[in-house]
Amino acid sequence: MAALSVLALDGIGLAGVIGTGGVGSVNPPPRGEAPAEIKLSTHHPPDAAPSTAAPAPAKRPQKAESQKASQASRTSCDAVAYIGDSTSAGMVMPSYLPDPVRRLDAQFARVGVTSQYIEISPARSIVETLSDQANADEVARQLLAKGFRGCWVLALGTNDSANIYAGSTVGRMARIEQMMSVVGNQPVLWVNPKSLLDSGPYSEANMELWDRTLVQACARYPNMRVFDWASLAKDGWFISDGTHYTSAGYAQRARLTAASLVHAFPASGREKGPGCVVH
């Protein structure tokens, strides 16, 4: 299905709304042109195995406390597949985050993710496609065909909401169910979208409809969690287009996304994890 109304990346901002209806456009921020599609695969070696030598008796409590603290800050997700649209791109771009430690892959590694597959594309939605770029459904199927098994972080919904506004007959719940059916019973963390716009396809009202549908879907999928980014994102983290972020915003989004993975699927065991919504 061709895109009805989608984000186009130029730099990392909205280059305009394209397709049917001519619903308007927004100027991009003054950044260098970003790649049309970002594919990032990283593999970080796990922490070194602990020594088999018996520690001195006085240090045993300290070691136990250290291990407990380490577990509390780590996720059970050793492998993660991240699928996102242009609102995620700044988290992995040196032009936005020159310090590699602040980027998404480093933040994932910090919480214990050793294998990462990050797939970011402008205008990406679950159903529609732009040019020759794969939609989220296709990307997930490709990763599964290559043997990926692990946790999924889906930062989708911004373009899906706009496409529904523009007239798509595929609704919000149907799109979420489509992705969940592809992923199966593997752990899934959805990142909900937010906008500062008052009207149009990318309005906050449309994003809120998507966010509510995500929470409704949680009741159907015990392996699903929602990272409530929308409640944490500050207005000052957005650029003038009301949809993309500043460098500070992207740094916070990367840090908090990694932290939410710990809250959603903690190393101490998923059965001890929270309900649907995590912060």
- Label the overall shape: globular
Percentage of helical residues? 25-40%
Overall radius of gyration: 19 Å
How large is the count of helical segments? 9
Largest sheet: 7 strands, mixed
Q: For this structure, what is the CATH homologous superfamily? A: SGNH hydrolase
The parts where pLDDT drops under 50 for at least 5 residues are 1-34, 48-59, 64-69
**Number of structurally distinct domains:** 1
Under the CATH scheme, which class?
Alpha Beta
> Structural class given helices, strands, pairing?
alpha/beta
Distinctive features:
279 residues, alpha/beta, Rossmann fold, 7-stranded mixed β-sheet, 9 helices, 13% strand
Molecular structure report:
The chain has a single domain (9-45, 69-278), classed as 3-Layer(aba) Sandwich (Rossmann fold), CATH 3.40.50.1110. It is α/β, with parallel strands linked by helices and 279 residues long. The chain is built from nine helices and nine strands. The longest helix has 18 residues, at 247-264. Strand 1 and strand 2 form a beta hairpin. The chain has helices spanning 60-72, 86-89, 104-110, 136-145, 158-165, 172-183, 204-218, 229-232, 247-264, and strands spanning 9-10, 13-14, 38-43, 79-84, 115-120, 151-155, 188-191, 224-227, 277-278. Helix 5 (158-165) packs across helix 7 and helix 6 crosses helix 7 (204-218). The chain is globular. The two termini are 34 Å apart.
